[in-house]
């Protein structure tokens, strides 16, 4: 449902895909945690960038070990995607034309009891992670 505003929806090119990109992210990436969500991030080289991919790509993970119900796992991933979509302006500023930043992000739900989780709770955790991330990548 794109109403013409930039950043109103999460497009396919904004999602991190591919075995090599994902394994590189988890092998070489750094990690931060806030509340129930952990963020693994990796700055990419411009030389390795795929044509047509977004400067900031994200993936959303909920472990079957922590959350047995597929319905609940899918709901948590939807909540994380929506929270990221609403809060991603922090990260988009990093990838502006004057900066050479390319980022891969993995948001991992690390909580054990997802029964009463709301968008507000997930959004607060993701906002905190993105603020921490912008401080880390902006400083160094």
TrEMBL record:
Any one biological process term the GO annotation gives: tRNA 5'-leader removal
Q: Which residues form the signal peptide?
A: none
Which Enzyme Commission number(s) are on file for it? Answer: 3.1.26.5
Q: Which domain of life is it from?
A: Bacteria
Q: Name one GO molecular function term.
A: ribonuclease P activity
Q: Which UniProt keywords apply?
A: Endonuclease, Hydrolase, Nuclease, RNA-binding, tRNA processing
Its catalytic activity?
Answer: Endonucleolytic cleavage of RNA, removing 5'-extranucleotides from tRNA precursor
Among the Pfam families in the record, one is Ribonuclease_P
Q: Does the keyword Nuclease belong to this entry?
A: yes
Q: Which InterPro entries match?
A: Ribosomal_Su5_D2-typ_SF, Ribsml_uS5_D2-typ_fold_subgr, RNase_P, RNase_P_CS
Describe the subunit structure. Answer: Consists of a catalytic RNA component (M1 or rnpB) and a protein subunit.
The Swiss-Prot or TrEMBL record describes its family as follows:
Belongs to the RnpA family.
Q: What does this protein do?
A: RNaseP catalyzes the removal of the 5'-leader sequence from pre-tRNA to produce the mature 5'-terminus. It can also cleave other RNA substrates such as 4.5S RNA. The protein component plays an auxiliary but essential role in vivo by binding to the 5'-leader sequence and broadening the substrate specificity of the ribozyme.
Protein name, UniProt field: Ribonuclease P protein component
- Origin species: Prosthecochloris vibrioformis
Q: Report which gene this protein is encoded by.
A: rnpA
